[in-house]
Design a protein that fits this description.
Length: 310
């Protein structure tokens, strides 16, 4: 079968199991691969070898390791799907020989307790202080994604944003229910301070928005749902006001994950809390925890020398 035809079959088969944004991502890289294959006179999908995939990855017009990894991962996934259909002529051994590029390991961004205090205090000077404090508490306490917290205008066909029927605020147990990637539902607990922040927002601010029939928890000034882009802008402005620049929604997810691991939460439980489908995505936070533990365990050579002279 022609590579282009096999790609179309693959995308058709995957369309209902991928989020809209992921589908666009897959289609883009597979189109790149089809174009590259055509330039190298590869027409049949059964002709593709592991070496061809490595050549395609090496031809990426960037040195960014995440982009190169995505190229390899998407094409490998496509060929793996093809190998399950004997009519396509792709051997399983070809898929197994495809080596994934190594990702550059960068430090995990984290907020300090002082940073968090500054951000919460800065909410007092905003138009919606209770909503903004509730947002920070929920993002820190649950590690949910931006699109799980607020409406994502780029994914109108999917259920995004925290809904009122997904919030349970009890005296003994409080939690939220969100719809994650792949439209998979999960629940994450709320602590006492986050529960209080949510109660104050719902009782004192949200009720005055005039949106009794709006199912979204976090609302914008005009009463419609707060969007992901609004959240990004809000947090960036809040960070600048607090003297903590570079604030973005995913930063709170980093803090939640590393804090959970430092508290003894297992990587498998954290995988569920974050809504990851595999442990590979969770490993970045394990590295972040290890970095913190290593810094705390390290002994200053200079301090030891000065103590020895006393």
């Amino acid at each position: 079968m022609l590579i282009s035809d096999a790609i179309e079959e693959y995308l058709s088969a995957k369309q209902n199991s991928l989020t809209a944004s992921t589908y666009v991502w897959y289609a883009r890289f597979l189109d790149y691969f089809a174009e590259w294959a055509n330039q190298h006179r590869l027409t049949e999908v059964g002709e593709v070898t592991a070496g061809h995939v490595q050549g395609f990855v090496a031809a990426a017009p960037t040195t960014n390791t995440h982009t190169r990894h995505a190229r390899a991962q998407i094409v490998k996934g496509f060929l793996s799907w093809c190998s399950k259909d004997t009519e396509l002529g792709v051997r399983r051994t070809v898929v197994e020989r495809i080596e994934m590029p190594r990702l550059a390991q960068s430090d995990v961004e984290l907020l300090t307790p002082a940073d968090i205090t500054k951000l919460i205090n800065a909410c007092d000077h905003t138009t919606h202080p209770h909503r903004n404090r509730a947002l920070i508490h929920v993002l820190l306490d649950t590690g949910i994604r931006a699109a799980e917290c607020c409406y994502d205008a780029d994914r109108p066909q999917e259920e995004t944003g925290l809904r009122m029927d997904g919030v349970v605020l009890g005296r003994e147990d409080s939690y939220i229910r969100v719809m994650g990637k792949g439209q998979k539902s999960r629940t994450v607990g709320l602590g006492q301070l986050s529960t209080l922040a949510m109660r104050r927002y719902l009782n004192r601010e949200r009720v005055s928005c005039g949106s009794d029939f709006n199912s979204y928890v976090f609302l914008a000034r005009e009463g419609g749902p707060l969007s992901v882009r609004m959240l990004q802008q809000l947090l960036a402005e809040l960070g600048e006001s607090a003297g903590v620049p570079g604030i973005h929604p995913h930063l709170f997810r980093h803090c939640f994950a590393v804090s959970q691991l430092l508290a003894g939460t297992s990587d498998l439980v954290l995988m569920h809390l974050l809504g990851h489908s595999t442990l590979d995505s969770t490993k970045i936070y394990i590295r972040g925890m290890t970095q913190i533990q290593a810094r705390k365990a390290s002994i200053s050579v200079v301090d030891r020398m000065r103590k020895g002279k006393r």
